[in-house]
Amino acid sequence: MTNDIQALDSDLNQMILKGQILEAFDRFYGDQVVMQENSQPPTVGKPANRAREEQFVGSVAELHEIKVAKSGVNGDTTFSLWVIDATYKGGPRVRQEQVAVRTWKDGKVVREQFFHA
């Protein structure tokens, strides 16, 4: 099972790295997915979370760098350290590191939480 989840997570990450963020979301996220930024209130359900993803994608003026620096898997949970350097529309250029923690069930992400400063 761990190898299957590792392969799914890798495929998801590769799509994100290629700029296919919304396509990856449609393919890999479950209907009742719960997503959360740090300790902010979670967003529940695929439609609400897709809207959040659309808002994020639409906010980026220029993506200078995106990479997965480290990743791992433990049971049904995957972890990845992302480095993102982007200029946002009407805003500054920001270089950020964030950790994404995903819980998988039946080949879909059912929970994802991002941790960043």
List the defining traits of the structure above.
about 120 residues, alpha+beta, 3 helices, six-stranded mixed sheet, Nuclear Transport Factor 2, Chain: A
Describe the structure.
- The protein is α+β, with helices and mostly antiparallel strands.
- It has one domain (2-116): Roll (Nuclear Transport Factor 2, Chain: A), CATH 3.10.450.50.
- 32% of the residues lie in helices and 51% in strands.
- It contains 3 helices and 6 strands, in the order ααββαββββ.
- The chain has helices spanning 2-17, 21-28, 46-59, and strands at 29-37, 43-44, 60-74, 77-88, 93-105, 108-116.
- Helix 1 packs antiparallel against helix 2 (21-28) and helix 2 (21-28) runs antiparallel to helix 3 (46-59).
- The longest helix is centred in the first third of the chain and has 16 residues, at 2-17.
Outline the fold blueprint:
Blueprint: H1 2-17, H2 21-28, E1 29-37, E2 43-44, H3 46-59, E3 60-74, E4 77-88, E5 93-105, E6 108-116
Parallel strand pairs: 1-6
Antiparallel strand pairs: 1-2, 3-4, 4-5, 5-6
Helix pairs in contact: 1-2, 2-3
Question: What's this, in brief?
Answer:
By secondary structure, the protein is of the alpha+beta class.
